[in-house]
Amino acid sequence: MARSAGWRRGLRDSAPLVLPTVAVGVTFGLLAAPVIGATAAVVMSAVVWSGTAQFAAVGVLGAGGGAVLAGASGLLANTRFVPMGFAIAASLSGPAPRRAAVGATVVDASFAIAHRGGGRFDAAALVGAMPLQYVAWLLGTAAGALGADVLGDPQRWGLDVLFPAFYLSLLIGELREDRRARLVAGCAAVIALALVPFTPAGVPVVAAAAAALIGLRERR
Q: Which helix H or strand E contains 74, and what residues bound it?
């Protein structure tokens, strides 16, 4: 019964993020279609399902980089899931295949939705937050990729600001309720801003994830 309630809560809490997710998906489709083609863009969203990694990989390909470098950039961007995995591990139960399946539903939105404070996460809410986010990401990518010729440059529609705005919307609730979250967010922002002028794209975000260790130390 508790799992069912958690699943419904995750589904309900993810509903307000559907439109922003679609909009960010449209942005990805617009940028990716001229580089890798519309079909490949949709397939990439279906398989990878990570906006940060996908934008990083397509950015490298668009700049003339090879597939290996693009893949490495995507993997580098996704290393942020390592500390996120450590964070949710204590809240998962059951055999390893079940825990792995639940862990596969972790994206930035579901991670924020399932957080219950004090380092606790609702595993059922993680799973419940997945369906709407996944479908919205696919639909957005398809709309952007197939309509790239009509819509044109994402900056023309102001879509380029949606990605940071989306992440900020996920963060605001945490910052309001948790002093430790404010400390980690502040340290992460300082790390990222300090590295932006000197490092390749993606590195500041990954390095900023190290600030999560401060929160772990604080909690202990």
A: helix 67-78
Closest CA to 184 of 99, 96, 84: 84
Condensed to tens digits (0 to 9), the pLDDT of residues 74-94 reads 888 888 788 888 889 889 988
Cβ atoms 2, 124 nearer than 8 A: yes
Query: pTM score, two decimals?
Result: 0.75
Enter the tokens of residue 216.
């772990």
| DSSP secondary structure, 43-67, as one string | HHHHHT--HHHHHHHHHHHHTT--H
- Element of type H or E holding 120: strand 120-121
For residue 197, what are its two tokens? 């002028």
Give per-residue pLDDT as tens, 84-132: 888 898 899 889 999 999 988 998 888 888 888 777 899 999 999 999 9
